[in-house]
Structure formats: C-alpha cells, structure tokens
Design brief:
Blueprint (H helix, E strand, L loop, with lengths): L10 E3 L9 E11 L6 E11 L3 E3 L1 H9 L8 H16 L3 E11 L2 E10 L13
Antiparallel strand pairs: 1-4, 2-3, 3-5, 5-6
C-alpha cells in the first residue's frame, strides 16, 4: 500500500457509461506552498465531473493531491494543472474544479476551472416538489 505521494492518476471503467451522472468529490485538506514565501497554503477542492468511459480511483487521487504538499505554486496555476491532469486521465464529458483557498493576509481566493467535451450538453435538471 503506497504511503507516499504519487503523481499517477489511476482510473477504472465507468460502471454506467450510457448515463450522464455527476460525481462530486470534496477534498478539504489540500495543501501546497506559496511560491513567494514558502509558507503553506490550505484549500478545499471540490471536483464535479460527468464521466465518460473512465472514473477516477479515489486512493490514487488522494496520493496525487498529496504530491502538491511541498510544491510552490500559485492558486491559479495549481487549480488549472489539476484540471488538466484529470482531463488527461479520464477524458470526462464535463469537469469543474473549485478551489477555495483559506485566508492569507486578509484575502480569500477561489479559483474555478472547467472543461467541457466538444459537443456535450448538460441534460436539463429535474426539480421535484
């Protein structure tokens, strides 16, 4: 069982590829380093995606996220890098990452990045009473 960070994203076959459905992943303990000061930055990452043929394996995602712990990276850069890596790994129909960084110097930062496969349209949401 791996006990160190890894930059490898593992996947598994989507058990229901004929249906559009959303997978929501909440990661409340994301950490990286400020590239200017070296101080730690803390964030909650929310990942919402509609899988196509593949889904993310969560243990591998945990180790991948852990790999950022000692990296100096700007909030905007890390959010977009995570998005690019996830798109590369699973080629989803749609994916959105919302990174809510904790306060630093009196400023909160939220970065939202998303990818939509060409031609894919979100189904209409059904609202029930």
């Amino acid at each position: 069982m791996p006990s160190e960070p890894r930059e490898i994203l593992e996947t598994f076959p989507n058990p229901n590829p004929a249906r559009d459905y959303t997978i929501h992943i909440n990661i409340p303990e994301f950490t990286c380093l400020c590239p200017k000061t070296g101080q730690p930055d803390f964030a909650t990452l929310n990942i919402d995606y509609v899988p196509d043929a593949l889904c993310l394996e969560l243990k591998a995602l945990k180790l991948y996220i852990w790999s950022y712990r000692d990296k100096g990276v700007f909030h905007e850069a890390v959010t977009n890098k995570v998005l690019e890596d996830l798109v590369s790994a699973i080629t989803p129909r749609f994916i959105r990452i919302t990174a809510r960084f904790n306060v630093r110097g009196g400023i909160y930062t939220t970065v939202v990045a998303q990818h939509r496969r060409d031609g894919w349209e979100s189904p209409l949401e059904v609202t029930l009473p």
